[in-house]
Design brief:
Structural class: alpha+beta
Strand order of the largest sheet: 1-2-3-4-5
Largest sheet: 5 strands, antiparallel
InterPro entries: DUF2203
Number of domains: 1
Order of helices and strands: HHEEEEEH
Radius of gyration: 18 Å
Number of strands: 5
Pfam families: DUF2203
Protein name: DUF2203 family protein
Distance between the termini: 28 Å
Keywords: Coiled coil
Amino acid sequence: MRVFTLKEARDLLVKIKPIAEDIRHKKEELRNLYEELNAQEDELEQMYVKTRIKELEAQIKRHLARIEELGGVIKGLDPLLVDFLSEHNGRYIWLCWKEDEETIMYWHELNEGFAGRRPVEELEESETLF
């Protein structure tokens, strides 16, 4: 697994954000299709909707795989959470991005999740102390 600096992860995010945006649109379309499927009584229409659902799910899976190929680690789908392995003061950490954030603004320890996120400024401040 690749280890990123904050700058490298932020640079990679430029490639990931359009993929994430497409995932967001496809998730919304899926929600609508599931509602349509539940309301649909015509069997032929149900088959069509189910086929479309499978196509969208496959497209989302391909997008998620692409994010991971680039080096991101998917930590959540709704909202989309992507972590990037990094190193700080001799230990590994996660740089954390959530789909509605402009850039990577948070990090957390490997054994912590979303609730343990802290601002990346803390990392920059602690580096200036040494």
